[in-house]
Design goal:
Order of helices and strands: EHEHEHEHEHEHHEHEH
Distance between the termini: 20 Å
């Protein structure tokens, strides 16, 4: 059992894309993960701006395997159609319908948050124009999230995924533009490394508004590796989160293609690395 005093670790289902959703829940339960962040992959949980799979299936799996769903991570990066900075008014309305649906799903399964991004700009337009559109849409969606008691956790995106918000400083500008208490921050380790930021930079910039983390290892092959598959000092990273009074979970967003045939092994390595890191932390207390 994991100590209640430790920051919880969560798994995500991205690297289970070639497995059924129940296999994901069964695996993470067996490995000791207390919670998951659910990525809305169509083959696992279909959701668009008009409809979604029955949420009762998610609740049933959560209850069956005693693994809570702490957050919903909707598909949203290019070429997915749900661009937070969409320019066309018809697309904007579909984007609003999509993300408010995600908030409804989160509420129905007892999750506390929905992961969002800035969306992306056309390369042929000023980034500032797309940033204004992004802020306007985030403001609309945050207002709905607040009414539903759900937080939005926004993460930075790497270039060339988007040019709107790549760093902690960029996110700070965007949050100031939105100015809604329901919009919080997800610290994505991969995006953080790519931008040259640090974990402490995020806490210095956002403080307790950092409510979520995509917590991964990084190496030459990928910036979204399973824990232990890269070069980061996982114990030191966790210690930095602890020293800043972090209240969220550490969600392992492994997108390494080499783990697609054996995501269970990747999650086992992440859990072993996480537990070993806490043994190191505890021995130094």
């Amino acid at each position: 059992m994991l100590s209640r005093h430790h920051i919880e670790i969560a798994s995500m289902n991205h690297h289970y894309m070639f497995y059924e959703l129940e296999e994901f829940f069964s695996s993470v339960s067996r490995l000791g993960y207390p919670c998951v962040e659910l990525w809305t992959a169509p083959q696992h949980f279909f959701m668009d701006y008009r409809q979604n799979d029955p949420v009762e299936r998610l609740s049933s799996l959560s209850e069956k395997y005693d693994v809570r769903i702490m957050g919903i991570c909707p598909e949203q990066t290019n070429p997915k159609p749900h661009n937070m900075a969409a320019k066309d008014p018809a697309i904007q309305e579909r984007v609003y319908a999509y993300f408010t649906r995600a908030i409804d799903v989160a509420s129905a399964v007892g999750a506390s948050q929905v992961l969002v991004t800035s969306g992306w700009a056309y390369y042929s337009e000023p980034v500032a124009a797309a940033r204004e559109r992004s802020a306007a849409m985030l403001r609309r969606i945050a207002a709905y999230a607040g009414k539903m008691g759900i937080n939005l956790a926004i993460e930075a995106l790497r270039k060339p995924e988007s040019l709107i918000a790549n760093s902690a400083a960029d996110l700070h500008v965007l949050l100031d533009m939105v100015n809604d208490p329901a919009l919080k921050v997800c610290l994505d380790i991969g995006a953080m490394v790519d931008a040259g930021d640090t974990i402490q930079d995020y806490f210095d910039t956002f403080g307790s508004d950092v409510i979520h983390a995509h917590f991964v290892d990084c190496g030459p092959r990928s910036l979204h590796l399973a824990l232990g598959d890269g070069e980061r000092d996982i114990a030191e990273d966790i210690r930095t989160f602890e020293c800043n009074g972090y209240q969220g979970v550490l969600s392992v967003e492994c997108t390494d293609s080499l783990t697609l045939t054996d995501p269970m092994g990747a999650d086992a390595r992440s859990m072993r690395t996480y537990r070993a890191a806490y043994e190191q932390i505890e021995s130094a207390r």
